[in-house]
Amino acid sequence: MRTANSALRSKDLLGIEQLSPEDITLILDTAEGFKEVSERPVKKVPALRGQLVINLFMEASTRTRVSFEIAEKRLSADTLNFAASGSSVEKGETLIDTAENLMAMHPDMIVIRHKYPGAPKMLAERLPASIINAGDGGHEHPTQALLDAFTIRERLGRLQGVNVSIIGDIAHSRVVRSNIHLLTKMKANVTIAGPPTLIPMDIERMGVRVVHSLQQAIQGADVIMMLRIQLERQGKLTFPSLREYYNTFGLTPERLRGAKEGVIVMHPGPMNRGVEIASDVADGPWSVILEQVTNGVAVRMAVLYLLGGAHMGGE
Ligand code: CP
After folding, report:
1. Contact 292 CB / ligand 1 (< 6 Å)
2. Residue 272: which CATH number?
3. 281 and 193 part of one domain
4. Which residues are CB-neighbours of 109 under 8 A, at least 6 positions away?
């Protein structure tokens, strides 16, 4: 039975910025319940039977697209994957026209990834379906931050007071924006590190500490989150070379010798091995990178389930 405090207040999930700490805790607690479903011989529950979810991915994705589809199937929803390639988008149809035509076929939820910040909000304002942001340009990637928080909480038992250092291409990352919103709301301590050219001038206003060396960022961290250098979003390299970047900010086993006992290393993927992270770290005992991927299914099941309630007439 769904109760007033067992569904999200909003029709949509557009970003972490709009969520309260209680919303975040509700999603993480719900995901904890769903994680076990993926370990059963029959990996399915009937929670969203009869609901149609459209996955509208207009930008490349492996983890997010696949795990949303798996999450939808595990909740027994009907799913439809829409890719721009091969559709009338190639003939110049706009996002709004595309979405309104899809809406005419009565989906209950639309999961959207788009290169333009604000594309999910634009759909949410026009369409009655629940809109879930699966990454919009450099703005937000809320389900990534939720799965990261789930992984930290599962490994360390809490979020409050945890020291999280996020290192790399801060300027071009939607993952970091969502993570900063989430971690500061949940009272974790966030440190940001990277070359000055890859750190926005006013990032401290988001409640984070900024350092410019990897060593300072590693010292005292419970969690080290490495970010991908987003070569596709940089017009040109904003540092001398990828080799120089690795020599200064690449996470190696040698550099982890200065880390706290029990530190965990995260990465949202896809990784540039040998640029921001050495393979020996990505595949080593510190790494929880594939756990993040596993947890992504449970977290997306929770988000779909909690938003799906909006279409169940408050049953
Ligand atoms: N972390 C993430 O969003 O990965 P994908 O781009 O492969 O979905």
Report:
1. no
2. 3.40.50.1370
3. yes
4. 51, 52, 53, 54, 77, 129, 130, 131, 132, 304, 307, 308, 311
First to last CA, the chain: 7
pLDDT digits (tens, 9 = 90+) for 12-34: 999 999 999 999 999 999 999 99
Structure tokens at 190: 């966030």
**Phi, psi (5° rounding) for residue 213?**
-130, 145
Whether residue 9 is contained in a domain is answered as no
* Separation of alpha carbons 250 and 230, rounded Å: 14
Nearest CA to ligand 1 atom 5: 61
Cβ atoms of residues 139 and 166 within 8 Å? no
Whether the Cβ atoms of residue 110 and residue 102 lie closer than 8 Å to each other: yes
pTM: 0.94
Regarding the beta carbon of 64 and ligand 1, being less than 6 Å apart is answered yes
Query: With a 6 A CB cut-off, is 268 part of the ligand 1 pocket?
Result: yes
Residue 304 sits in the same domain as residue 193:
no
Positions in the chain short of pLDDT 50: 1-4, 313-315
Closest-CA residue to 165 (of 156, 176, 150, 153): 176
Domain count, the chain: 2
CA pair distance 182, 159, nearest whole angstrom: 10
Domain interval for residue 196: 142-293
Amino acid letter at 223?
V
